[in-house]
Amino acid sequence: MVGVVQVIRVLAVVAALYGAFIVPAQAQTEEQIERFRSLTPEQQRAIMEQPASGVAVQADAPLAVPDVHRQKPAQQDEAALRPFGYDLFRTVPTTFAPATDIPVPSDYVIGPGDTFEVQLIGERGGRYRLVVGRDGVVDFPQLGPIAVAGLRFEAARELLERRVAEQMIGMRASVSMGALRSIQVFVLGEAESPGSYTVSGLSTITNALLVSGGAKTIGSLRNIQLKRAGQIVGRIDLYDLLLEGDTSADRRLQPGDVIFIPPVGTTVAVRGEVRRPAIYELRDGAVASDILYLSGGLTPQADPRTAKLERVDDRRNRTVVDIDLTTPAGRSARLQAGDTIRIQAIRDSQEGTVALLGHVYRGGDAEFRPGMRLTDLVGSLDELRPRADLHYALIRRETGPTRIVSVVSADLAAAFADPASAANLPLQARDKVHVFDLATNRTNAEGADVIQPILDELRRQSSRDEPHQVVGIGGHVKVPGDYPLERGMTVSDLLRAGGGLDDSADGGVAELARYEVVGGEGRQTDLIEIRLADVLVGNASADLPLRPFDYVVIRAVPDWHERETVTITGEVHFPGTYPIKRGESLRSVIERAGGLSDRAFARGSVFTREELRQREQRQIEVLAERLQKELTALSL
């Protein structure tokens, strides 16, 4: 019974590992069993040693499947900096085919296994393939053994051609290299896969590094050593290859050579606005300008004056040092192991500009010029879209080193009517001029509120001593709501912000509600009557200055109502729609319509009213619902 349970457990795990549904034990396939057999012995043993309790043997019962953990490659955080240059070895070739179609350099050193192709020219022409034996000689027919091992290819060729010319009268030879020998070299140290490798006789240091998987991230890329007979005969800096394509130090290998990768040297990280953020290996005595070169230089958004050097000091505390990379002292700052240079971006705000926004044809940023005024930015009224509000434009302004936000309103119509007047306001750098659409309630083209974000900014910078600079207007104006309080703002300015009076407004008297904290004991409300008629004609004494939180209410004309009409159809002389006055009777309207015609049947007249129609509709809906309930009860 235990054996059956183990078989069922094995089959269940195979199904889970390879995406199969849990099926009865007798339905397992040979393919699934073969896949189980392909697991490592440790995985098979772990599966077989699972406790038998809880494993159902019924065909229709689900099986408990243990988790089998497989090793997965570690995923690096894309946001983290990576050491520079190691991607060169990320793709390791599975085979290393020697290059056979390139010319053999003249300084190639001949060794056992190399092949010469010799073409004899003369009376007894012929072609010979001469292989260098283990003793370093080639057996040349008619000439005997000739020692060539250790010679450079150019010297070996001259030797063979000279021997033919001297010993074979009337003959000369053309010598070239045939198949090249393979050599064994060693890649050691901090290599990804240290060991011995068989490579082509033309292979170089980089060829061997590529076939061996390259260096680990703890291995140096700038001090790779070539050792021959225990002595260092060459060094290669892979940064020269990666950054400049310089292969001058990439020496050709000889049998028994050792490529040694020492531990990585001093490393410094560079972040931020550089073209190649990474961790770089530096030579001794490196300075800030060196790592800027390695990282590809600064991006156009970089601010080299505000660079930060993060360092761990002698007390193992993290410190930050400001560096101005535009100065010689900043560029020559000495770097230490573990340093991080952070290049910050320039500020997102634009200096020396003004902006025209809102209901205009060509908005956006513009160059600020000293003495610039509102009309200089707008250009002309033709630049405004139809229905632009010419009497209320809003200028958001930042003043002082702390960028305190303030607001100024402008009358575009007055500014263009007399550009020399005070209405043509002077602009300052960073001003943003918003032009509104009369058809919208102070929103932009996307429908977003323009006023409220400015009010929020004013509220955030307010305090007890500097209260929130906001006023409001309600009642019968075209655009009621809250507005920023400007310096020197009066009731007439608030009326202009609110779009002016609507048709139903009472132009005689308005009311101002003023909220003030008196003696620190509570907030009190004062109601002040405004002589609106005097304000509208420009009476300065009636045009009261406003304070924070003031609220103006524009009342309606007494007994104001919209036009009321009655429609009369049928047998009257002049059917149609007639305006009526309060208290007018049906008889009066019929008489205004010319009276009843000769064919009129007065007793059959129908009188309908919207209010009555709605009431009848509600009654019909109630009756229909009641009838539905009764029919439901009868069906039960």
Would you summarize the structure shown here?
The chain is α+β, with helices and mostly antiparallel strands and 636 residues long.
How would you describe this structure to a colleague?
With 636 residues, this protein is of the alpha+beta class. Among the domains are: 71 residues, no CATH class; 63 residues, wza like domain (wza like fold); 80 residues, Outer membrane lipoprotein wza domain like (Outer membrane lipoprotein wza fold like, Roll), CATH 3.10.560.10; 78 residues, Outer membrane lipoprotein wza fold like, CATH 3.10.560; 95 residues, Outer membrane lipoprotein wza domain like (Outer membrane lipoprotein wza fold like); 41 residues, no CATH class. Helices cover 22% and strands 26% of the residues. The chain is built from 15 helices and 27 strands. The strands form seven sheets. Strands 7-6-10-8-9 form a five-stranded mixed beta sheet, covered by helices on one side. The chain is elongated, with a radius of gyration of 47 Å.
